[in-house]
Amino acid sequence: MGVAILSGVIASLQSRAFEQSFPKWESHTPGTTTPAIDTGDPSLPSRFIATVTRSESARKLQATLDALGGLGSSVDIVVGDNLRAVSEADVVLLCCKPQQAYSILSQDGMSDALTSKLLISILAGVTISQLTSLVLPTTKVVRAMPNTPCRIREGMTVVSSLPQSDDIELDRDIILKIFSSIGRCRFLDEKHFDACTALSGSGPAFACIFLEAMADGGVMMGLPRAEALELAAQSKGYMLILERHGTDGMEALQGAARMALQAGAHPAQIKDSVTSKS
Ligand SMILES: NC(=O)C1=CN([C@@H]2O[C@H](COP(=O)(O)OP(=O)(O)OC[C@H]3O[C@@H](n4cnc5c(N)ncnc54)[C@H](OP(=O)(O)O)[C@@H]3O)[C@@H](O)[C@H]2O)C=CC1
Fold first, then answer.
1. Which of 40-54, 92-106, 131-145 shows the lowest mean pLDDT across its residues?
2. How much is the pTM?
3. What residue owns the CA closest to ligand 1's atom 25?
4. What ligand 1 atom has the least distance to the C-alpha of 273?
5. Disulfide: which of 89, 98, 201, 218 matches 223 by Cβ 3.0-4.6 Å?
6. Per the database record, which ranges form the Pyrroline-5-carboxylate reductase catalytic N-terminal domain (predicted)?
């Protein structure tokens, strides 16, 4: 999920830089230079650092980021040195497995490295009070719950209310820039997070069961499997019915359908990527 968020932010920044360099009315051939980030806006990142523990993950991540072009290749991938990465960052996105939060945040020197910084956790089920107990009171802790369609920038992310600070407006802008670049973003009180995890975080997996059943019905009626899946995913009627019951539900279904169409992923694969492995 961390890779999906990083890729989405980079893709969004690159398209912004491209539009600034080449206004729509101008006739041109796309250039090959690295797009420059508009550093005049303090809510936009000027540098990215990604951390992993295994060299194999670093290699895979490098390939994913290289495929994004200039800005993707410029990401600093750090293997096994979270402290260095956090010390050099202003905003930290915590995207490990929930059970790894304690060892990462309680590492020697980590609470000092996080002082006065914005710490955004996407960990399912780990509360703000659990996270704040591991950091100094000056660290601004926020929870976010994205979903798998973030991978194709069709996601839904719910973010908890921001802690009071002098930088609250800037922090809000930073968060909106991150999560709006991978879909929709909405602020909600933390008390709603379990419901959000079930509805939009896990929603794409439930939507895939429905999608697969529709495709199976098509196959039973004689359609080839690939076409049955395409027809089911592109069918908009059920999305409109769901829209009446709330945007988050519709987003999850729409995102799952688009992943099946755009990314060519089978519903079973999408379900699998939603289900966290230990
Ligand atoms: N899947 C989903 O739909 C959603 C998931 N989430 C949350 O996202 C989080 C991640 O889930 P998911 O993306 O599926 O998990 P993954 O296992 O795919 O990704 C975890 C990443 O964290 C890295 N990592 C693990 N330990 C460390 C460490 N100590 N220091 C630095 N990097 C580390 C891993 O790299 P390496 O293996 O090299 O260490 C890997 O790149 C979970 O907390 C989950 O609750 C939230 C919303 C939706």
1. 40-54
2. 0.84
3. 96
4. 1
5. 218
6. 50-125
